[in-house]
Amino acid sequence: MIGHIKMGRFEYIKWRGLQKDGSEDFLLFYEVDLDNDRYATRMIEIYKDGSVNPVVEEDFEFITEAPVPTIEEINTDPEWHAELISEIEFEKIYVSSHYIDDRKKLYLKIIEDVALEISVSSFWRNKYLRVMGNR
Fold first, then answer.
1. Same domain for 48 and 109?
2. How high is the pLDDT of residue 103?
3. Which of 43, 64, 101, 128 has the most CB atoms around its CB within 10 Å?
4. Rounded to the nearest 10 degrees, how much is the dihedral formed by the CA atoms of 34, 40, 42, 47?
5. How many CA atoms within 13 Å lie on the side-chain side of 55?
6. Helices marked H in 37-99 — which ranges?
7. What would the DSSP string read from start to end of 98-135?
8. Which residues pair with 98 in a beta bridge?
9. Could you give the number of structural domains in the chain?
10. CA 132 from centroid of its chain's CA atoms
């Protein structure tokens, strides 16, 4: 999680819908106004390809037609998972054009580490072969 979660007027929620096989069905982010009965003032939809869609409702103060449930209420359904995130994390996603979740970041890090290891191994193998070839 990025940044510190502070409780003030707003609460920031990451809400993931899961299919029965555990794969992701939808991913939403909400800025929930705690002073206005938990209605969302901003919302972000993340599509399966990772593209980011900040939801905008012109001429309306709130994005949602009903209050956003608490994370405890959301998490009573086994097909949903919600967690609090920081305002900083919400803002970074809101202004980005593509979203990479934590699992994808982990996979990318593993791939990067393996590529680095292969590169270093190749460097030393080539150096060894040059040294041994000069004997």
1. no
2. 53
3. 43
4. 130
5. 19
6. 71-74, 87-94
7. B---HHHHHHHHHHHHHHHHHHHHHHHHHHHHHHHHT-
8. 51
9. 2
10. 50
Q: Count H helices, E strands: the chain?
A: 3, 5
Does 79 share its domain with 132? no
What is the rounded end-to-end Cα distance, in angstroms, of the chain?
Answer: 54
SS3 73: helix
- pLDDT (tens digit per residue) in 48-89: 888 898 988 888 889 899 999 999 999 999 989 999 999 999
Torsion, CA 119, CA 125, CA 128, CA 130, rounded to 10: -80
- Percent of the chain clearing pLDDT 90 (strictly above): 42
* Residues 133 and 68 reside in one and the same domain: no
pTM given for the model: 0.68
- Domain region containing 115: 100-135
Q: Match 């995130």 to its residue by tokens.
A: 85
